[in-house]
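From the pipeline queue, job 12 of 40. The input is one protein chain; the requested action is below.

Action: predict structure.
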Amino acid sequence: MAVIDRLFARAFRRGLLTVVHPDGSRRTFGEPDPELPSATIRLSRGAAAAILRDPGLGLAEAFMDGRLTIEQGDIMGVLTLAMANSPWEANDTLLLPGPLRRSVDAIGHRLGRINMRRQAKRNVAHHYDLSDRLYDLFLDADRQYSCAYFSDPANSLEQAQADKKAHIAAKLAIEPGMRVLDIGCGWGGMALYLHAKTGADVTGITLSEEQLKVARRRAAEAGVSDHVRFELIDYRDVAGRFDRIVSVGMFEHVGPPNYRTFFARCRELMTPQGVMLIHTIGRLGKPGVTDRFTSKYIFPGGYIPALSEIARGYEGMRYFLTDVEVLRLHYGLTLQHWYDRTVAAREAIVDLYDERFYRMWTFYLAGACLSFRYGGMANYQLQFSRARDTLPITRDYMIEAERALRQDG
């Protein structure tokens, strides 16, 4: 039995994976499972060695380069088989790189996550300055590129993203005339929503020049540029004081060495009665290392924090942590929508870039989706205040405000 077959035999126990080797021989691994798909993959020469060296990156690059082709099913099905057989709670590290590779990766990760200011801008541009057309093809109309909120798993992506904005706005307890800072504002959807629903003046900041152009255009088209402003600036360089701060999907790019800088700067930017809401992907377990595929191809410099790392970032700064919510499966549902829309737009994406980019993007979305379904990822929403009496002492106000925002459309 080939070495790669021994790996597959240990890794695929539930569900059926058939592997066609370069010499034409076929092996099937696992047992039928009504809850899991079946898949058939064909390996060309060199693919097995790459997977053995580093299962995650090797599998990704073999798929991207066409050295691993899928004859039955799709990449979502293949990765579902792999991750469903090794869920986070089982503590099974079979498909992780070996100890030496993990040690080397850990050193590189510590060096790479320093996230200096110039590097931070380059890292953001790597991902967010891609073609506008790409994001239009798989995101909702408001371009919410972060975890949606599914009050019902059957809801559409558009409904879930609208509900996410209402969910966050309700926690911010914004009153008319307040000044709000949106750190990592994306294409401006949240900032525009907060102004429209609350009457607040909102400043959105980003390090993406492409996002800035779109956000400013949207504010101008809505006729609210005097109340919703967007700037190309690092959070460390923002001036002024704000009644509320919101940050959605940006904290993953801060880097642990900068967490205390981030929280200290935000505290300086908040008024004495200020409130802040951070929405971030988080690890369910202890601190870890960004996988090589993600750091190489998707989010260079990005890192998903453990809750303990976030806590070390703000402890001792006299913040009141006033609310914590864990969204376990919401991002998995969101990413499934993004994946399905990407697959439906295959021809358009290949025309924009090429087949290799399309395969990379589907691998990214499928792997991310399954990391919330079977892996060790969740979303955290953390609410902070500077004063102990700023917010009501029960969560009822959030529920009431969210209901009103949804009814308002």
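Job complete. The chain is about 45% helix and 20% strand.
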